[in-house]
Specification:
Blueprint lengths: L8 H12 L5 H15 L4 E5 L2 E10 L5 E7 L2 E6 L13 H11 L2
Antiparallel strand pairs: 1-2, 2-3, 3-4
Helix pairs in contact: 1-2, 1-3, 2-3
């Protein structure tokens, strides 16, 4: 579930440019976003997925280069696509990088 961006398109486009500078294909671009998100997004943070509170402990890539949020609740772990992850209100510091990724990915 993508949410409406609180940042302007020009600002998000600037972040996209920063994350994808010197990348030559989609895989390199996704890795650029992962590096930016790793650097700027404050984790862990709590959010709600399907009515259940979970803790996002990490952002990672799958073997097919999809960006996912690693969610934990008690002993259960589940990876949720970053494009579908509901962000909490207020969002964690650095969440604008998630917004930029979603804009780039067409979410």
């Amino acid at each position: 579930m993508a949410e409406v961006s609180t940042r302007g398109g020009a600002e998000l486009d600037a972040l996209i440019g920063e994350a994808t500078v010197d990348t030559y294909d989609e895989i390199e671009a996704v890795n650029g976003f992962l590096a930016a998100i790793d650097e700027h997004l404050t984790v862990p943070f709590a959010t709600t997925v399907l009515g259940v509170e979970v803790t996002v402990v990490e952002i990672d890539l799958t073997n097919d280069f999809r960006m996912v949020a690693r969610c934990v609740r008690e002993e259960f772990r589940q990876d949720i696509g970053l494009a579908e992850l509901p962000l909490p209100e207020p969002p964690p510091d650095g969440a604008h990088w998630v917004e930029a990724y979603r804009r780039w990915a067409g979410c």
